[in-house]
Amino acid sequence: MYAQMVETGATTVKSVTDMDEAEKNFQARIDREIKIEPRDWMPDAYRKTLIRQISQHAHSEIVGQLPEGNWVTRAPSLQRKAILLAKIQDEAGHGLYLYAAAETLGVSRDELTEALLDGKAKYSSIFNYPTLSWADMGAIGWLVDGAAIINQIPLCRCSYGPYARAMVRVCKEESFHQRQGFDIMMALCRGSAAQKSLAQDALNRWWWPSLMMFGPPDGESVNSAQSAAWRIKLFSNDELRQRMVDQTVPQAEYLGLTIPDPDLHFDDSSGHYVYGKIDWEEFYQVLKGNGPCNRERLAARRTAHHDGAWFRDALAAHAAKHAAQPSDQRNAAS
Of 94, 143, 155, 174, which Cα lies nearest the Cα of 259? Predict the structure, then answer.
């Protein structure tokens, strides 16, 4: 998923005996898998956790356009350019859906945007890596969007209604993104030796960051238990990461590519692939703002926000003018 290390405000799950009556009723609804809607009562910690998670997810969709936008003018064909543009447009739409879902929790989009631009809000670590070749467009679609699908499909069944419903469309479109990425990798692998080398280089650089997308190991994920109790999170980080490895290794073999992990092997007793040690220090450094492109990504978002101010002002002025008109004139204009 595009949300990592979301704070819940609690390192342990509150027991039923420690809950007040409203909290008990709320948890009972969660346990019966009844969706929580915006006007329903909810604990402040649940609301704040959702705001953090949904806004981080939304920020990631918006910032995630930047690595791919770098290759629109350099796509190898008109068809590839059109597909990439459509994908980037989808990501912008995902951000809008998610910002709208966050707004149902009582926070404004302006507040969320300001937190991102001020560097106070997080977005997924994966988007702080550079895209060095066209093959990276394939690796992002195949690996990054593939990881996103694995994490986001369960969110269609999460406890908060607006978030769950938004994720249904997001997941359908992410499925297209994953397929187009794999198609790019397959075309490169069926091409010249130089093209296949580009595909292997992209896999080498994106493999480990893609596995980091699921967040730290379960033993270090202090917020997961409460998110699971609230059904905001349905599977643990390590469970989802294992699904990613099990799903992707056979795909890499089909492409004729080598996963950059000398310790990778299939374990017959468990029926799963065993993978090597992840460099979590790299992950934490990127989250702290020390990744290859952290400063570049935020600078690009700040510039875009500044340059787009005139358009936002024009929209607000038009809306105010429209609202000031008598209702019969508004209806005739529409």
Answer: 143
Q: What confidence tens digit (pLDDT) does each residue in 78-134 have?
A: 999 999 999 999 999 999 999 999 999 999 999 999 999 999 999 999 999 999 999
* Main-chain dihedrals φ then ψ at residue 266, nearest 5 degrees: -90, 130
pTM of structure: 0.89
Measured CA to CA, the distance from residue 287 to residue 67 in angstroms comes to 17
- Cα(271)–Cα(289) distance, integer angstroms: 37
Rg (CA), the chain: 22
Say how far apart CA 88 and CA 305 lie, in whole Å: 18
104, two tokens: 């149902």
C-alpha angle with apex 162: 158 to 164, nearest 5 degrees?
A: 30
- b/e sequence 306-315, b meaning 16+ C-beta within 10 Å: eeeeeeeeee
Handedness of CA 120, 124, 125, 126 (dihedral sign): negative
Instruction: Please spell the DSSP secondary structure of 194-248, one letter per residue.
Output: HHHHHHHHHHHHHHHHHHHTT-S-GGG-TTHHHHHHTTS--S-HHHHHHHHHHHH
3 to 145, 155, 181, 311: CA distances (angstroms): 13, 12, 21, 29
Q: CA triplet 129, 133, 136: central angle to 5 degrees?
A: 55
CB atoms within 10 A of CB 74: 12
Close Cβ partners of 94 (under 8 Å, ≥ 6 residues apart): 58, 61, 170, 173
Pairing of strands 265-267, 272-274: antiparallel
262-281 pLDDT, tens digit each: 999 999 999 999 999 999 99
